[in-house]
């Protein structure tokens, strides 16, 4: 089931790439919704699960430190490559690495439970659509042609499947799994707050995109609570 769900990330990434090539009309509204969903996963799902799994072994303050570390590490990875200085291939490669980590987070979440895995997978699928958009955009912005954009898009689409498959061979203790979820919570907070929200705010209707972000977070809150019934 894990690999079948991770295949959905493949389809979502391709769909995002096609959107970037053919359409752009409602992109900012969808980016706002995606930002809220990704942030909601971090606050309402990953961090509470992490605290529950590590309650016997770690102080809650340690969990927040791990989350902060994840946020800062993802920031360094994201900013290590100048994305608009004639380095389209290198920038696209950094997005492929991000997508691998997305798939890895799905695999870890399914080790907690099917419900947690499904919620994280849903958020990653939405996010990966925008990974597809970004991959195509960065290649074309740096004077790459359509063939190069499609090559990088395919690599980006396959990366989450590889990341999810990697976790199948791992045996992780409960407390360690909780720490990993805290780390990925930091990743998701960075993706939502520092990538998706600023991108959505570039719309001519910032209040509309902000409302979509609130809606995305609310939908994830409802999804998490329904999954626990």
Q: What general form does the structure show?
A: globular
Helix content: over 70%
| Total beta strand runs | 0
Quick check: average pLDDT? Answer: 80
Outline the secondary-structure elements:
Elements: H1 2-22, H2 27-53, H3 60-79, H4 88-112, H5 114-141, H6 146-166, H7 174-200, H8 206-227
Helix pairs in contact: 1-5, 1-6, 2-5, 2-7, 2-8, 3-7, 4-5, 4-6, 4-7, 5-6, 5-8
Structural description of this entry:
This protein has one domain. 83% of the residues lie in helices and 0% in strands. It is built from eight helices and no strands. The protein is globular, with a radius of gyration of 17 Å. Helix 5 packs antiparallel against helix 8. The protein is mainly α.
Provide a compact summary of the structure.
With 229 residues, this protein is mainly α. Helices cover 83% and strands 0% of the residues.
């Amino acid at each position: 089931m894990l690999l079948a769900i991770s295949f959905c990330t493949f389809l979502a990434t391709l769909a995002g790439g096609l959107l970037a090539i053919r359409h752009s009309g409602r992109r900012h509204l969808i980016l706002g919704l995606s930002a809220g969903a990704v942030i909601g996963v971090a606050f309402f799902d990953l961090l509470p699960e992490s605290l529950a799994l590590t309650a016997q072994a770690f102080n809650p303050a340690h969990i927040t430190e791990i989350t902060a570390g994840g946020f800062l590490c993802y920031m360094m990875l994201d900013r290590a490559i100048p994305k608009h200085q004639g380095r389209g291939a290198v920038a696209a490669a950094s997005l492929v690495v991000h997508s691998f980590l997305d798939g890895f987070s799905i695999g870890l979440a399914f080790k907690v439970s099917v419900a947690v895995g499904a919620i994280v997978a849903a958020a990653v699928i939405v996010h990966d659509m925008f990974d597809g958009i970004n991959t195509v955009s960065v290649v074309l912005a740096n004077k790459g042609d359509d063939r190069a954009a499609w090559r990088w898009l395919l690599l980006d689409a396959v990366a989450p499947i590889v990341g999810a498959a990697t976790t199948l061979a791992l045996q992780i203790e409960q407390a360690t799994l909780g720490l990993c979820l805290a780390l990925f919570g930091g990743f998701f907070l960075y993706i939502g707050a520092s990538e998706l929200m600023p991108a959505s705010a570039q719309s001519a209707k910032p209040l509309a995109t902000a409302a979509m972000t609130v809606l995305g977070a609310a939908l994830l809150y409802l999804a998490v609570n329904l999954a626990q019934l």
